[in-house]
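Support reply, case 0932

Customer input (verbatim):
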Amino acid sequence: MFDTVPGLMDQIRARFAHVDSCPFTGERVFFENAGGALTLNSVVETSAKFAAIPDNQGRANGAAAALMDVIAKARGDMATFFNAPGGQFIVGESGTELLFRLIGAACLGTGAGRVLGSTLEHPASRSAANRYAPLSGKAHVLVAHDDATGSVDAAAYVPDLTPDTQVATILHTSPVTGMGVDIAAIAAEIRKVAPEAYIIVDGIQHAAHGRIDLSACDIDGYVISPYKAFSRHGYGLAWLSDRLAALPHDGLMNAPGAPWELGTRDTGAYATFSDVVAYFDWLGGNFTDSDERRTRIEAAGRAIHAHEARLTEAMLHGTGNLPGLAQIEGISVLGGIDNPRREGLVSFALAGVPAVDIVEKLNAAGIRTHTRKADHYSGNILDPLGLDGCVRVSLCHYNTEEEVARFLAAMRDIAAG
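Our regenerated output:
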């Protein structure tokens, strides 16, 4: 889709730092976006600006008032980006930390019953549920994901749903298989049986690919790690429904409004997410004439999805005279070849060649990918497949078909031995 706008890909790539070279190793293709996406140049500039400001929020001076205005603007930008139905946004140490806080509060603030999750989930949400379910007198029940599709659907949740389901966790997109999940459909099934359950979603892997619409999902919490969505390390971002926010939670005694944020948060974190929203707004403006900011953000999400689908199609089926992964003998692709759930990520194994060796050879060819091992991060996905590791190639919309071709040429040579 990007090729319908002349020069757009060059404009996109110009907005990101280190788009084609590493400051430590030199020129490279960056296919490790699921580990942390590229950072917007505007985020780099904003981070430096706010790192230099000595003033605190909430003081009786002009600088403090300006900082509070920045935070208020950012919260408004977040509401538009997520299409949030009320509730509130908070920042914390990381996405993982915020998942622990939201899931912990939901577990401890409800009575005996069940915490329902799935085997697809990242250990951030599974570990939080595993810790707080027994502390709150609940069973932690896991719905089995589908090994063949690398995902889990609403129908799989139904047999394990009971009226005493107090808390439910859902993964929006798997960082191992790259497959998306229909969180609205799952939430609807949960509400039919346990309408008062607190539903918390891990959106960390999904966020960079756009198309977040909380108004279309009857959930209570949504968490992302902004460094995986073109911002920077050092903070996580969460949306909480009003009823989740009202539960007892960690906080300072007698603090007005019972805030969820602990201590003074970094104004720069808020400001850099405004940069992310502004980028989506700009990008979407190339595909719609609408004056509505949310409409432009939605247009950006559709364009991102279409471009990434084209890149993964080329990676799987080939481009030019280069064979795709599906045509290379001995390669197996997690979640199958043609899977409509895929979001900018292909994980694969090559028979007889350890994943760590493939990643090392790709590094030598100037292509950055990552090994997923059957460990505490990915064993839930890889163990049932009989794999001790796989190669994860994760794309974002600033990647190009030429970069895919370079990857496929390297894989052709690696597979040939």
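We compared this against your earlier run and they match. Two observations from our side: The first helix runs from residue 8 to 14. The radius of gyration is 22 Å. Please reopen the case if you see a mismatch on your end.
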